[in-house]
Amino acid sequence: MMQHASYHIGDIDSQSRIEHGEVVLYRGIQAAEVFVLHRLTTTETRRQVMNLHSQSLTDSVISFNAAHCNLMRCETGYLNDRSFLFNGLCREARLDPDAPAIRSVLYSGCALEEWCASQKFGPNYVKFRTPLTNIRITTFVAGETEVKVIDPNKLEVIEAVGCTVNEVDV
What we know:
It is a single chain. The protein has helices at 43-56, 60-68, 85-92, 100-107, 114-120; strands at residues 2-3, 6-7, 22-28, 34-39, 109-111, 125-131, 135-137, 146-149, 156-161, 164-169. The chain is α+β, with helices and mostly antiparallel strands. It has one domain (2-169). Strands 3-6-9 form a 3-stranded antiparallel beta sheet. A hairpin with an 8-residue loop joins strand 7 (135-137) and strand 8 (146-149). It starts with a strand and ends with a strand.
């Protein structure tokens, strides 16, 4: 898969729904027993968040920086890590960039392959299905198969391994 000069080369068997325009995603939560899935339930909040994502995808440079702006890993430490690009965009949209739900919606990532969620970020994890158009490839350089979800409302929970899912309205 390729997006804005980002790419992912992975095991096609791990993405059996791709021919149907869908991907399966995994979110490791280490030993936590509850995964909080934020849903954008008000029209205004959803519009604001979708506008922020739209602004972050206006060109390949901004898109790349938005995809990597909160990473802080040895594999990606040279990619302007911890710059939190969305903070300024949130303030312009009158959203609180420090609100846990907003931070989660804008900065959380999922893996495209189960091994990454279960072994690196597990053992507890959640498995989702979402349209292919709802993701942005992020840490292709770190070998973590990570993507950013654009709209959490388009995530369908398939399975929770070792945990439960708590859906919270934002």
